[in-house]
Amino acid sequence: MALQPSIETDVPLARFNSFGVAAVAGQLATLRDTRELSALVDWHRSGTAAQVLGAGCNTLLAARRIERILRVALRGRRIVAEDGERVLVEAAAGEDWPALVEWTLSKGLCGLENLSLIPGSVGAAPIQNIGAYGIELAEHFDSLDAIRLDSGERRRFSRADCRFGYRDSAFKSPDHRRWLILSVRLALSRSLMPRLDYGDIRKELADAGAATSARSIADAVIRLRRARLPDPARLGNAGSFFKNPVVETTIVERLRARYPGMPAWPAGPGLAKLPAAWLIERDGWKGHRDGDAGVHERHALVLVNHGRASGADLLALATRIQAAVFDRFGVRIEPEPVILGGARA
Q1: Which CATH number fits domain 77-227: 3.40.50.300, 2.120.10.30, 3.30.465.10, 1.20.272.10?
Q2: Residue 289 bears catalytic tag
Q3: DSSP string computed for 60-84
């Protein structure tokens, strides 16, 4: 039986974004049941194209008013197939990502432990190809189901279809933004293949005196993230705001002549990844503040809302940082968050 999605008017959005910036949705449609999809497509096609808002943890609302917002609140998670060690898990797009990781751990499944405590929804995870501590979602991705909002077409996307890259996927292209992700399937394992060489995971495990397990790795990652990143409930933020730029190794050589010891990591033939935090901090932005828009005092990648910053204020600060880093290093840094209602930084 077809159902109608919830549609509200003039809805304040501060509670729907982790920056806590004030904005208003002229119309806010909330999808809670796949039986609402037919009516949702009709609504989407009846006016200005809606902009999709997930958990709001990787989003900057750059305008005070956004005419139409679509929120996905689909719920559900289950094991859909098992083949020896391999286990296929499916989760609805509106599920909370950290809660999904905890659920997989409770089922004795391995693979997502390094991605613990990344804020956001399951549906947003493949769009961004989320990653942390040496792991990317793409490594455990199987497929996803989506609906094209301008036509109602339903489709299953394979890993190849998604064209995953570093914090990137096909769903960031203009054409693929018309697709709304409904559910995601992940291929996990009953056996642990630990990834401990990124960041301080190995040291954290040793300091805790913990044996290596999916649970102990997840706990180590959680402790590290909580120590380094501010709690959005206390200080508005969207985690790391800028992606680590991938550049030609010749650029790294040129920069190291000026800045000996500058860190970099291999990123493919002739390429290297530079830490955006190092570039931003070296240029003096760590702890900087423009009114209530600022850079966190402990982590140069994190833009924060000290109270009453608008999305436009934060976007202006991000644009200034980008320009300053490019002027000094000749390297462009790009934002990670989705920017709604304003020009991209």
Answers
A1: 3.30.465.10
A2: no
A3: EE-SSEEEEEEEE----EEEEEEET
Give me the residue spans of the domains in the chain.
6-72, 77-227, 231-340
In order of 31, 65, 247, 306, the CA distances from 75 in angstroms are 10, 28, 40, 32
Say if pTM beats, i.e. exceeds, 0.85.
yes
In the predicted model, what is the mean pLDDT of residues 58-73? Answer: 95
pLDDT tens by residue, 118-130: 999 999 999 999 9
Q: Does the active-site annotation cover 336?
A: yes
Mean pLDDT value across residues 47-55? 90
**For 125-182, how does the pLDDT look when each residue is reduced to its tens digit (9 = 90+)?**
999 999 999 899 999 999 999 999 999 999 999 999 999 998 899 998 877 678 999 9
Among 116, 183, 216, 240, the active-site one is 240
> Out of 68, 167, 215, 225, which one is annotated catalytic?
167
240 is catalytic: yes
| Architecture, CATH, for domain 231-340 | Alpha-Beta Complex (3.90)
Is residue 340 within 8 Å of 60, Cβ to Cβ? Answer: yes
Architecture of domain 6-72: 2-Layer Sandwich (3.30)
